[in-house]
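Blinded run. Sample ID left blank on purpose so nobody reads anything into the name before looking at the predicted structure. Input follows.
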Amino acid sequence: MKNYFSNPFVPLICVPDLQMKISIQELMVRSGVAFGTSGARGLATAMTDSVCYAYAKGFLQYLESIGEIKRADECVAVGGDFRPSTSRVMEAVCRAADDLGYRAVNCGKIPSPAVALFGFENKIPSIMVTGSHIPDDRNGIKFNKCAGEVLKSDEQGMSSQIVELDDAMFGVDGNFAKPAAPHEVSPVAGENYAMRYLNFFAPDALAGLRVGVYQHSAVGRDVLVKIFSHLGAEVTPLGRSEKFIPVDTEAIRPEDVELAREWAATGKFDAIVSADGDSDRPLVSDEHGHWLRGDIAGILCAKFLAADSISTPVSCNTAVEKCGWFRDVRRTRIGSPFVVASMIQASADGAKRVVGYEANGGFLLNSDIESGGRKLRALPTRDAVIVMLGILLLAKAEGKTISQLAANLPARFTASDRLKNFATENSAALLARFNSGDEAADKIEIGKMFGEICGRVQSLNRTDGLRIIFANDEIIHLRPSGNAPEFRVYAEAATDERAREITRLSLVKIAG
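Blinded prediction complete.
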């Protein structure tokens, strides 16, 4: 029996000479690759073929256990981003599906929402190989059920699966002993995603607008050019890179800030648009090259869609309540599974145009939208394209620039940044310091660290991490990353400069 994994102290359930069985929980310990509601993530070197194969099997076995799929010539959609390790991981996932009796459909390198949409519309599971915005020495696998994202309620059932591996299939390094012929790529899912928008919006919807598409290494870079061009915009591709660039829409790199300003200074663009690696989270700039915060972009897109219920994490800008545009605003924990659960409840409560968005800009649509006899079907997973189109079309409809749209919102500005390589035990210790069980004492302790930045603490919110509301209406939100050794700080204030200053000063305090 080969030992594919690094921890020799966790026993395997063995079938002599040929097979071994291992629980997903054990595999998490052995491999160091986390597995949960948001999928699997880890170093590319730790995400061996055997680990990825086992995780994909575990996910599909879980869907079988709840009666969502069965082995009767059913398909499983698989897509991926442009990371160096993605093709290998995609093949491991496809082989796992095939070996369980399903037919893997290799959708190729396409956006996460395109893979999910293909799955939802065909009522089949979908799996996206992507690490999103994290560096290219890491990767991940995102799982979708037949009708929506994996929810927190699915996590225990997924992680408790026991999977069987054929000992002869893998070498001692955990990778396939013999490569198989790669699965042929089907272009259907990518084409279907583009037509989703081209069939709903008028062919001249963006006529007269000039749009720059910052392509970098985003997997949706070409489909963005196709959609905007076919809707009548004058499109200029910008900054294409064959090397993977970890663009994080929630912590925008200084290089990307400067690039947008330089491109906008030419006066050629009404907006510049882009997305993260798997192209489910948007970046939208105004005509000056200033990137909109994701939660501001979400508010503007929700207005364009005339939403009557919004679900959004507690960390997002309070302008969504202060603007008075929406009947129902629901605050959730951070993470799309929580937003999805909230949207499902909003629909059950009778709302007709239910949307959700996150601080990273990802926008979720839980209702069909009908206009002019056309229908834009619900897509309850993060999507970038609808945000870009929604903001541009709102600006066109109101005869305003994008900067004017943003300026019409209440003066609330958010900023966020993170400490990298911040150990999870340090994150836990910091939050424990402010969670004694005595709120009055906690406010005093918080004041010792952050009082000189924002003054007196007024109230605390522990929905997700620690959100500190100060008497001057400024906010500091502390939260460890859920999938990386990082600690994030979110801030909100009356000016952009002040929000950034609060973020910077808070990070200095925490690092010290």
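Unblinding after everyone has recorded impressions. The first helix runs from residue 24 to 31.
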